[in-house]
């Protein structure tokens, strides 16, 4: 019974970590005049109808309307939440897409627990990611 209890506690702790949501912080861009950028191209992923550029820039004219910082766990669930949170930030800012500024964090390891009766449980432990994206508005129609 004790062996089951340790495994159950580890499972509940892992589920609690996965059940969280991505933390976001949006700041509107302010400056003298519009910062107009001519994008050169790159790679994108479309999430909920919004383009997320993780490598390069859109091959179009655009302006930066804000910057969002998104933090979540570095795992398959956290990565999905991050993508959805970016799309939500684009929508809320009335933007068209997001362009990566920086990707930080990640890393992981293994956690192990030993019970008093010789039971053993192990599982992956992940760090957090802190991603920063420019929220942009296209200036030309495609």
List the keywords.
alpha+beta, 25% helix, 50% strand, globular, 142 residues, two-stranded antiparallel ribbon, seven-stranded mixed β-sheet
Indicate the topology:
Blueprint lengths: L1 H18 L3 E6 L7 E3 L2 E7 L2 E8 L3 E13 L2 H17 L4 E9 L2 E7 L5 E7 L1 E11 L4
Parallel strand pairs: 4-6
Antiparallel strand pairs: 1-5, 2-5, 3-4, 5-9, 6-9, 7-8
Walk me through what this model shows.
With 142 residues, this protein is α+β, with helices and mostly antiparallel strands. The chain is globular. The model is unreliable at 10-19 and 109-113 (pLDDT under 50). The strands form two sheets. Strands 1, 2, 3, 4, 5, 6 and 9 form a seven-stranded mixed β-sheet that branches. It has one domain (2-138). A hairpin with a 5-residue loop joins strand 7 and strand 8. The chain contains two helices and nine strands; from the N terminus they run H-E-E-E-E-E-H-E-E-E-E. The chain has helices spanning 2-19, 76-92, and strands at 23-28, 36-38, 41-47, 50-57, 61-73, 97-105, 108-114, 120-126, 128-138.
Number of strands: 9
Largest sheet: 7 strands, mixed
Nearest-angstrom radius of gyration? 20 Å
Unreliable spans are 10-19, 109-113
Q: What's this entry about, in short?
A:
The chain has 142 residues and is an alpha+beta fold. 25% of the residues lie in helices and 50% in strands. It has one domain.
């Amino acid at each position: 019974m004790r062996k089951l209890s340790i495994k159950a506690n580890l499972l509940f702790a892992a589920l609690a970590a996965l059940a969280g949501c991505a933390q976001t912080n949006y700041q509107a861009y302010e400056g003298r005049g519009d910062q107009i950028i001519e994008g050169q191209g790159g790679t994108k992923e479309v999430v909920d109808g919004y383009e997320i550029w993780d490598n390069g820039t859109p091959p179009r004219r655009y302006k930066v309307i804000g910057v969002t910082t998104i933090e979540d766990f570095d795992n398959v669930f956290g990565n999905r939440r991050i993508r959805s949170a970016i799309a939500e930030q684009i929508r809320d800012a009335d933007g068209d897409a997001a362009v990566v500024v920086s990707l930080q964090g990640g890393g992981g390891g293994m956690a192990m627990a030993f019970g008093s009766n010789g039971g053993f449980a192990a599982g992956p432990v992940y760090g957090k990611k802190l991603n920063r994206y420019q929220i942009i508005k296209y200036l030309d129609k495609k």
